């Protein structure tokens, strides 16, 4: 089954059938492998639909998620899934979570969708992303996400040098990270600079 089929089966709006049917799985399936032991941290559990999706997609991944609302554990068992209850803007909480997860290959922010929260989580977690890893931010269309301002802050923080002042037109930037946009999804890759140095030799 493709990731989108698994998403649709589990009822998450990351797929193409349920709620707003964002179709993000069409992107994730190109970046996140269906095999291998890597670490994925998702911000936002809600009813656990995406957690079940990830587990079916690749049972071998080191899967963790956070949510501010302890009631999420009424929908998904903390015995079966690594669920951490806390606020995505709480630095100490996130640092404690990363002590448990280890360095991160993928982070997906599907939490509050508030611009300030998105930026804060990014500023805390970006240093824990492995070279070659990805940080995804969903639902930039949400009013509270304040998309243009959020993109600018993240672009500045991850030290991109943009060839354009219009991030929506930008697919590639020069520097230690690459920022691109797919509809309402922001994708920030932490470039592996040792690789690019080797390639230049
Ligand atoms: C869109 S839902 C997550 C959906 C889930 N990822 C899926 O695809 O099935 C957003 C979740 O973010 C949580 N949330 C909201 N504000 C938060 C915050 N400040 N820190 C952590 N989680 C938050 C909410 O409690 C809610 O469960």
Taking strands numbered 1, 2, ... along the chain, how are they ordered across the largest sheet?
Answer: 3-2-1-4-5-7-6
**Helix-residue proportion:** 25-40%
The domain tally reads 1
- Summed up, the helix count is 7
Q: Write down the CATH topology.
A: Rossmann fold
The string of secondary-structure elements, in order, is HHEHEEHEHEHEEH
Which molecules are bound in this entry? Answer: S-adenosylmethionine
CATH architecture: 3-Layer(aba) Sandwich
Gross geometry: globular
CATH homolog superfamily: Vaccinia Virus protein VP39
In total, how many beta strands? 7
- Mean pLDDT over the residues: 87
Describe what you observe in this structure.
With 201 residues, this protein is α/β, with parallel strands linked by helices. It has helices at residues 3-10, 25-31, 49-57, 91-101, 115-125, 147-157, 193-200; strands at residues 39-43, 62-67, 82-85, 104-109, 129-137, 177-182, 185-190. The protein has a single domain, classed as Vaccinia Virus protein VP39 (Rossmann fold, 3-Layer(aba) Sandwich). It has seven helices and seven strands. A seven-stranded mixed β-sheet has the order 3-2-1-4-5-7-6, sandwiched between helices. Helix 5 packs parallel to helix 6 (147-157). The termini are far apart. Residues 160-175 have low confidence and may be disordered. The structure holds S-adenosylmethionine. S-adenosylmethionine binds next to strand 1, helix 3 and strand 2.
